[in-house]
């Protein structure tokens, strides 16, 4: 494990950034390219570790995937084109890869084993193994099938009518990918709307899927055809610079080509409610995923409450929203966010622990956190705990610190944003 001296005490952030490709959409472009027929071309694919884990798994399943500087090309032969892998499928640190992959493998008539790193080994898998087993797949794993390694033998699947016990796009997507292989029509009811990239991908690849309020319906046996995908920038990555621009004095940042799918824009809603000087310009709704440019300027912020159906629309942004709240006037309360406990780390614990070290006034609750605003942040040694979003949040916090800040395990950041430090250095020039 290495450590890094972070940039501190910054007077201003200024300039224009093009945000790298969306992680959720990049994963799905490889998966759908692999289960469709023909040559899928993907531009602005995120070159993050998690997305390379997805590519590596599908190569082991027999799919030819070529990559050069500008483009990814995936040569799919339908679900039937996937073959039994000779090796275990290693998803690294990626929850999205393992859960969606299991949905695909559930319907394939061969044996496979999925594994990941230590963090993946602690994340719950029953949420996908239960519905997929109900559809007919055979699966087993450590602790009665709850944790990796998990072995699977896919089967001919029966459709399912399923009420999701948690608002999770990964679980929904795993069932949809299995549903596409089932003998009949499956329905999924989600307790709150979650990111809908899988639904949009099904349509983009020529399939049909319908939604009526929180009820989603998909028919098995549809043939998907290759597509040309341009991946918009990741709003979850843009979030770090939206917050940085709002809290570092005298700043103005333009963020280009940011994905603005309404199931992902909770951070914009919250920042506007807190009083952020944030504008959306050049919005383009004509593509399968909307995108646009964002302008953020230093802002006078006030505390807020973040809760309820908004949580799934900003789940990955909560660590950076917590930092934002340390600079707002008054109290911010984050509730109904217990899902944070089962991410790359327990993000309630790691956010509270690491921001407290820098002098923030923040306490953990059962389902979120309470933050008292307007703290002067100081220096210290902090850790990403191997969680990319915690590492990036701490690097943005350091910009406000007037003493030295050392970040342990900064490498984790390459999971979703390999150029992150380059982008900070560019804006803080
Ligand atoms: O479907 C996806 O691409 C994702 C869904 C979310 O997870 P959950 O489905 O577990 O909420 C999110 O936290 C993750 O970063 C990506
Ligand atoms: C939770 C995350 O990803 P995953 O679940 O794919 O590991 C994330 O990127 O914040």
Automatic annotation (TrEMBL):
Function, as annotated: Catalyzes the transfer of the enolpyruvyl moiety of phosphoenolpyruvate (PEP) to the 5-hydroxyl of shikimate-3-phosphate (S3P) to produce enolpyruvyl shikimate-3-phosphate and inorganic phosphate.
Keywords carried by this UniProt record: Amino-acid biosynthesis, Aromatic amino acid biosynthesis, Cytoplasm, Transferase
Pfam families linked: EPSP_synthase
Similarity comment: family membership: Belongs to the EPSP synthase family.
Residues the entry annotates as binding phosphoenolpyruvate: 23, 95, 123, 170, 347, 389
Coiled-coil regions listed: none
Protein name per UniProt: 3-phosphoshikimate 1-carboxyvinyltransferase
Positions with a binding annotation for 3-phosphoshikimate: 23-24, 28, 168, 170, 316, 343
Gene Ontology biological process: amino acid biosynthetic process; aromatic amino acid family biosynthetic process; chorismate biosynthetic process
Gene (UniProt): aroA
Native organism: Neobacillus novalis
Limits of the Enolpyruvate transferase domain: 9-422
Subunit architecture: Monomer.
Catalytic class of the enzyme: transferase
Origin superkingdom: Bacteria
Higher taxonomy: Bacteria, Bacillati, Bacillota, Bacilli, Bacillales
């Amino acid at each position: 494990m290495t450590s890094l001296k972070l940039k501190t005490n910054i007077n201003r952030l200024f300039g224009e950034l093009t945000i790298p490709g969306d992680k959720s959409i990049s994963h799905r472009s490889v998966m759908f390219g692999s289960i469709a027929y023909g040559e899928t071309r993907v531009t602005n694919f995120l070159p993050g570790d998690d997305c390379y884990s997805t590519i590596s798994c599908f190569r082991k399943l027999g799919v030819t995937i070529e990559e050069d500087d500008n483009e990814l090309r995936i040569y799919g032969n339908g679900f039937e084109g996937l073959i039994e892998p000779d090796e275990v499928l290693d998803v690294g640190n990626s929850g999205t890869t393992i859960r969606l992959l299991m949905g695909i493998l559930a319907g394939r008539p061969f044996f496979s084993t999925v594994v990941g790193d230590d963090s993946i080994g602690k994340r719950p898998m029953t949420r996908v193994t239960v519905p997929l087993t109900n559809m007919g797949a055979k699966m087993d794993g450590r602790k009665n099938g709850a944790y990796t390694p998990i072995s699977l033998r896919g089967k001919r699947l029966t459709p399912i009518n399923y009420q999701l016990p948690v608002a999770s796009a990964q679980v929904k997507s795993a069932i949809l990918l299995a549903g596409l292989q089932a003998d009949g029509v499956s329905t999924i009811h989600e307790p709150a709307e979650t990111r809908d990239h899988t639904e949009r991908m099904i349509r983009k690849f020529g399939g049909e899927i319908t939604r009526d309020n929180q009820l989603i319906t998909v028919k098995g046996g549809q043939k998907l055809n290759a597509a040309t995908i341009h991946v918009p920038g990741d709003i979850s990555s843009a979030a770090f610079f939206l917050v940085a621009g709002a809290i570092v004095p005298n700043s103005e940042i333009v963020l280009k080509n940011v994905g603005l799918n309404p199931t992902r824009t909770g951070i914009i809603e919250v920042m506007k409610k807190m009083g952020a000087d944030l504008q959306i310009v050049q919005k383009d709704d004509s593509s399968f995923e909307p995108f646009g440019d964002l302008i953020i300027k230093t802002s006078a912020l006030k505390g807020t409450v973040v809760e309820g159906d908004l949580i799934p629309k900003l789940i990955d942004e909560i660590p950076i929203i917590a930092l934002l709240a340390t600079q707002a006037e008054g109290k911010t309360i984050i509730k109904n966010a217990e899902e944070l406990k089962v991410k790359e780390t327990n993000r309630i614990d790691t956010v509270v622990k690491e921001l407290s070290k820098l002098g923030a006034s923040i306490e953990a609750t059962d389902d979120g956190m309470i933050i008292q605003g307007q703290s002067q942040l100081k220096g210290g040694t902090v850790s990403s705990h191997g969680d990319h979003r915690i590492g990036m949040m701490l690097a943005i916090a350091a910009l406000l610190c007037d003493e030295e800040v050392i970040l342990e395990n900064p490498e984790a950041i390459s999971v979703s944003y390999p150029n992150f430090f380059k982008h900070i250095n560019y804006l803080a020039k």
